Amino acid sequence: MNVRFDQPLGESQPDNPSRREALKLGGLVVAFLWLGGGAKVLGRAAAQGPVAAGDAAFAPNAFIRVGTDGAVHLVMPSIEMGQGAYSGQATLLAEEMDLGLDQVVVEHAPANRKLYANPLLGEQATGGSTTIRFCWTTLRQAGAAARALLVGAAAAKWKVDPAQCTVARGVIRHEASGRSLGYGEVANAAAQLPVPDKVQEKDAAQFALIGKPLRRVDTAGKVDGSLQFGIDLRVPDMKVATVKACPTFGGKLVAVDDSRARQVPGFVAVLKIDNAVAAVGEHFWAAKQALDALDITWDHGPNAQYSTEQLFKDLAEASKHGTPIPGKAVGNVDGVKGKALEATYQLPLLAHATMEPQNAIVHVRPDGCDIWTGTQVPARCVDVAAKLTGLKPESIVVHNQYMGGGFGRRLFEDPVEQAVAFARQVSYPLKMVWTREEDIAHDRYRPAYYDRIAATLGDDGKPVAWTHRIASGSVLATFAPGAMGKNGMDSDAIECAADVPYEFPNMKVEWVRHDMPEGVHLGWWRGVGPVHNVFVVESFMDELAHAAGKDPLVYRREQLQKNPRALGVLNLAAEKAGWGKGSLPARVGRGVAVAAPFGSYLCVIVEAEVSPQGEVKLRRAVAAVDCGIAVNPNTVAAQVQGGLIFGWTAALYNGITIKHGAVEQHNFNDYRMMRINETPALEVHLVDSKEAPGGIGETGTVMAFPALFNALFAATGVRLRSYPIDRAALVQGPDALKAVITQATDRAAAAKEGMA
Amino acid sequence: MKLVRMILALIAIVVVGAAAFTAYAWFIVGDGKETGAPQPAAAGAPASLTDPVARGEYLTRAADCAACHTVPGGQPYTGGVAFKMPFGTIYSTNITADKETGIGDWSDDEFVRALHAGVRKDGKPLYPAFPYTSYTALSRDDVLAIKAYLFSLPPKHAPARPNELSFPFDQRWGLSVWNALFLKKQRYEPVQGKSQAWNRGAYLATALGHCDECHTPRNAMYALKRGDALSGEVLQGWKAYNITSDKTYGIGNWSEQQLADYLSKGHASGRGTASGPMGEVVQYSLQYLTPEDIGALVTYLREVKPQQGSAGSEVNDRPALALASSASAPGAEELAQGGLGQHLFQGACSSCHLWNGQGRQSEAAALLGTQAANDPQAHNLTQVILQGSTLRTAHGETSMPSFGQAYTDAEVAALGNFVLTHFGGKPATLTADEVAKRRAP
Amino acid sequence: MIVLNINGESRSVDVPDDMPLLWVLRDVIGLTGTKFGCGIAQCGACTVHLDGAAVRSCVLPVAAVGTKAVTTIEGVGASAVGKKVQQAWLDIEVVQCGYCQSGQIMSAAALLAATPEPSDAEIDVAMSGNICRCGTYVRIREAIRQVATGQKVAPQTLPNEAPNQAAATGQVLSFVRVEGVA
Ligand code: FES
Ligand code: FES
């Protein structure tokens, strides 16, 4: 296990301890900026050297330390939530330093946005499929610089030309003389050398680790139960709380009668905040029993009558009468002659439902505060804790933890904020764990969207005009208001709508902002903006192909002639799926979708079957992926597989609905998850590419929706423009519902007849 | 012309007759004389309970007032529970001692009259969703003990929800006619020659527990068919099973222990778990009865005239498919058949119920031998899948989540059919259409 | 006091009878490998073995355990099957966030102990009670097949101490779930 755990529990952590500790321990410290291409290594520090913590002029914001024991530490600005970030970033470093991946010790970065902001997001945050993209060049350059310094030190000692030295697994060798030295042995000497002006990262042909399906660094502890997630931590003297917030958005707590709760064995206390109540117990069970025994009176507040129907009415209204903000304009869509088509798409609010429910341990003391939690935004956790406690940010320490899924949920620190608000009322460390019900009812939901889209087809059936108006709330406006465009545009709302892989001679894309009522919070969800837009664009492309009387794949191919990478994945997927070959049974159809989200290119083909009663079965899916260089192809494939299933789950079953101002779903019984017996045969084919890596974590989810919906259209002739899939609309004639359902089609036999 | 005159005369007679009868009905409804009827020898609370409020609490529970007057998760006895009847929806009322919205300013006589004659404080008749046709058999002492208990609780302000009834059912005068026809205002009289236990059981089952109100079939006028007592009826989508002593269709084959367990704990090994309205009866009422009273109920039920009931179903306790399954997998042949129902059972159900129907985490999840899996119309099976079920007793809580929201009619039908054939050996009968109807009974 | 036999050790706990085994394990004994996901037996994250059978500990009252042997993820590696399952999980890297995987491994180990060579349909039966939000189902199937057949049916990971090897080949890299391998 080569991942270092956080500081021992219960111990306070000074600002950026790893770094000060590093300086005390000696060795070589390489500090550098996480900038995009062209970044360079800015300096290094020796034991007690001048590059003391936070030398302002120097402003390093990340570092690599080679200890005198030879261990190579990398402080990770990104966090690990299953996407393989730690392993991917460590691989880049190990590659340039000629190490095994096992020789890199990965550390969770402390909260410090000056040092660890992700330059693509402008925040110390992990998300948007940016992890590899933002450090692809910098981290490799830093590694190459470190290697150059270490080899330089050895060569100087031996008085040989550094170019004659080789390195394998951190051991520098001079073949001619047969001498060798480990990195640790020259670390202090290397620290005295001047930093090279220019270093050359390896050429792709020289990669030893990049492109290999290396085993991830964090998985061993996840198969034997030893790795601890935030929810698993236990701090001395802590008590456990579970929470109920006002079920109605924006509602308030009026009164709590805890007389029954006090009878619960293990009961400790009831804590109140403005809009929620926590029951505290010696363990979760006591807390939960006590919570259930509370008689709570709520003031349901201004949204007590709010509903999903109202939400969509408002969005439709905004789309018609709101002020559209231009996102993209090419040519002139007005007055273009031809066959006109238009459609309205409507997408629901969605919950994240990470497998690990929201949790945090917070210990507020007069002089400081410790927070143990798995978060995608550690610096924001410090912000909210400072605000609530009045403590100095420097005295607040976030001990980041492994996460049981993120999907964007842990980009929002509201659970930590709530935990701090409760914990500051008590002296002991308070561990707050949400039930699944609380997790579903108080998420930051993926926005609902209302899209009106139209196109005009020329005589040859090609789209000559394309108009797309999106209406939605804005996540960006609350997450990073400063990142909103000058004209008020939310770039996320139109991502992959303004930039489609096709060329349309006339195109207009615009967005209308409609804010949710107070208390209804929106958030990023796996696939962010593209997960909405690619569904609409690729569904509508299918509608156009159908209107033009063309095969939907062939139709796309025609519009992709100037986009070789998109064309490449389209053709690869078509070939692997046997598109157009063989005949399919009745009510079985194939759907295709192609897109270029997050700097990668994907084409997904889904084969689905619809029973006479409208039940949907995925039979097979083929994904072709060109994500540039795949740092770890195994991880890339895993992300695409998992991303597809994440998307299909929502397509088939999900949609948060609101009635009387409260969410109607509770747990996995009514916020339903796809299961293994619904999972189709699933192939992922990666294009061997030499392009710089694109993002991957969210791409599968983005592609899942349109490929499936297009398959449903092919199977039934019914075009669905919202989800979860309205299975009633797919019923084959009214008699189907009068039939006694005893057996569905035999799955195995059906799969065999499929795409051979 | 003669004919016309005769017809007119006939109509006139009918009208006058109806008016006279209505007047009579109206008059007897307001009649307070029933309170003077002889007191029954049987009293509802155990003799050991002497404190009047404690007696009242015991009786209030035995009469199961909470189930109808408390919405799930709501304040006890504040009403608001919806009763969907074939002719509209009735909401229960606030029976706390709140003066404005509850019964705080009801006199003893008014309270007694409500339970004995089905009349509100203002003299208007109550709908028989309120089981006064059973409570009429209660002794005045018992009724007043209930009142004393209710008045000992903190009054809660909770205005009643207006009923949603269509004409003519919204006309309360019609009820007077109904009462005249179907309400027998009579206190319980111990039956000579029967044991004390039997008599006590009878009083608990008929007057207090009002078992008939659910388990006895009703006629077209919504009145109980006393001749078919306890032979089973479907109410609000749930089936109140045949609880006569019939060995095949009723509970004649249940052991004393099974009956006692079912009544007091909501679960009888090998027979199933109370859910839906019966679950509420156990939760709010039966679990609080003394073991002697449970025993008395069992004694009484044992002697209820055996009846086949309509659409009676035999419980198959050796269903071939369940027997061919292990705890963790169905038999190979059945597995090979696949099917939507089996497929859904794999994911959402088998974790608790197990393929052999034994129940895993808790015996409450056992399906083998249950009425639910053996009712060819799958009434309760459908409702439990749609709405879930929670049973809270002194022994802890067992619950099953609801699946109605996220699963389609076709899925619920397929799953129900799977359970019927696999655990009951019954032919599949459910259709998506039928499930749709049952969603909104 | 309730005496439990957990991973071969006897543990006494002073807890209410109706407390689910899950919370006894996690919050009283400190075995946190068993996870909480839903609390209503819908996700399988809390799966442990009771005398070898997979059970959902979130709805199992501790008093119902009796003298049955409890095995958790921390102890499953002591059995030959458990060890093989864990190895296969690493070899084809089933894990993503890992939160559901304790439960997945416990379900898979129980299946393979009872049915050493499960068919695809049997795998689905045994594993459908376990939700994975990261969507690792394809690889769960493959890993179980790998244990059952002893054959490497899916692309394997390279141990991460990987030596310098030839660079990636200039071809399409496929991660194909092979249909019908049993
Ligand atoms: S936590 Fe037990 S099944 Fe989900
Ligand atoms: S690996 Fe994340 S939930 Fe399964």
UniProtKB/TrEMBL annotation, chain A:
Any one Gene Ontology molecular-function term assigned to this protein's record: oxidoreductase activity
Q: Identify the residues that the record assigns to the Aldehyde oxidase/xanthine dehydrogenase a/b hammerhead domain, covering every copy.
A: 224-302
Which Pfam family is one of those matched by this entry?
Answer: MoCoBD_1
What phylogenetic lineage does the species belong to?
Bacteria, Pseudomonadati, Pseudomonadota, Gammaproteobacteria, Lysobacterales
What PANTHER family does the annotation carry?
ALDEHYDE DEHYDROGENASE (PTHR47495)
The name of this protein is Isoquinoline 1-oxidoreductase, beta subunit
Q: Which InterPro entries match?
A: Ald_Oxase/Xan_DH_a/b, AldOxase/xan_DH_MoCoBD1, AldOxase/xan_DH_MoCoBD2, AldOxase/xan_DH_Mopterin-bd_sf, N-heterocyclic_Hydroxylase, OxRdtase_Mopterin-bd_su_IorB, TAT_signal
Species of origin reads Dyella marensis
**Cited SMART domains:** Ald_Xan_dh_C
From TrEMBL, chain B:
Keywords (alphabetical) are: Cell membrane, Heme, Iron, Membrane, Metal-binding, Repeat, Signal
Taxonomic superkingdom: Bacteria
- UniProt remark on cofactor binding: Binds 3 heme c groups covalently per subunit.
Which residues bind heme c 2 per the record?
C211, C214, H215
Q: Name one GO molecular function term.
A: electron transfer activity
The cofactors named for this UniProt entry are: heme c
Q: Does the keyword Protease apply?
A: no
Output this protein's name. Cytochrome c, mono-and diheme variants
Which taxonomic lineage is given here? Bacteria, Pseudomonadati, Pseudomonadota, Gammaproteobacteria, Lysobacterales
From TrEMBL, chain C:
Matches recorded under InterPro entries = 2Fe-2S-bd, 2Fe-2S-bd_dom_sf, 2Fe-2S_ferredoxin-like_sf, 2Fe-2S_ferredoxin-type, 2Fe2S_fd_BS, Beta-grasp_dom_sf, Diverse_Oxidoreductases
The protein here is known as: Isoquinoline 1-oxidoreductase, alpha subunit
Gene3D superfamilies per record = 3.10.20.30, [2Fe-2S]-binding domain
User: What are the entry keywords?
Assistant: 2Fe-2S, Iron, Iron-sulfur, Metal-binding, Oxidoreductase
Where does this protein come from, organism-wise?
A: Dyella marensis
Keyword match Oxidoreductase: yes
One GO MF term attached to the UniProt entry: oxidoreductase activity
Which Pfam families does this UniProt record tie to the protein? Answer: Fer2, Fer2_2
The answer to whether the entry has keyword ATP-binding is no
What range(s) does the 2Fe-2S ferredoxin-type domain occupy?
Answer: 1-76
